[in-house]
Amino acid sequence: xxxxxxxxxxxxxxxxxxxxxxxxxxxxxxxxxxxxxxxxxxxxxxxxxxxxxxxxxxxxxxxxxxxxxxxxxxxxxxxxxxxxxxxxxxxxxxxxxxxxxxxxxxxxxxxxxxxxxxxxxxxxxxxxxxxxxxxxxxxxxxxxxxxxxxxxxxxxxxxxxxxxxxxxxxxxxxxxxxxxxxxxxxxxxxxxxxxxxxxxxxxxxxxxxxxxxxxxxxxxxxxxxxxxxxxxxxxxxxxxxxxxxxxxxxxxxxxxxxxxxxxxxxxxxxxxxxxxxxxxxxxxxxxxxxxxxxxxxxxxxxxxxxxxxxxxxxxxxxxxxx
Length: 322
Known about the structure:
Elements: H1 2-15, H2 20-34, H3 36-41, H4 45-63, H5 66-72, H6 78-81, H7 86-135, H8 148-151, H9 155-175, H10 177-186, H11 190-196, H12 202-212, H13 217-244, H14 252-293, H15 314-321
């Protein structure tokens, strides 16, 4: 399995020859598009404070700094409460409740905005990205193709297929990690299928992906492990730094290293992303070929490509090709 994963990576790298600058531009644009809601929310002071407090709270939990955890969660020190009047305690309790409600409203707003934006925009852009990686090395593709999900019709089916896929994977992860991983790889072909044949319904794209990924899930998992290594190392570095850092009242000592490391992880992820996407597209090509040979894909009626010209069923091909 490991050698098969390396073979897909090698094949993906070979087909990107001469196209890497364009692919990096496409992926950077796609990443910027995906974070537009968060960039807008950062312009709002309450959301900006929420992000800062969030980083500080993560650091406090890792360092086991209970005072900071209590402060950020609106809890007060019991020893200090002895010297406060009943009115002060009630006022602090009221303020803590307001702060908790504000955080819940902010979190809910962020999740709602991101979910809607991802469904309407980001997920459809990902279909365009899939179309680029399917076509690279075979035909001329460019930046404009990343928006093909919007221009080639069947928009709502594309939007629903990817949005429901991501929602299903998140729900599976919420119950247990292993079912989430399984479902993620079982439906990995959805974006590629919708890019390859815009006329597919979302139920059909799910059905094909579910059946065609048999035998490929472990290979995809190994590919993700290989390309995810720098990201795992980055997060381990953050945890290690916060573990050895003594508790501090200066949030900058926690937030800034986390931001720098997070930025390094994001940059590493962007650098490796074309290679991972290219390898995935090669897995997709093999899985699609197998699905056609086993009759999972109705050859000549959906996901038509040059291999279908060799189909021996004359009347069907006469209808499809013209």
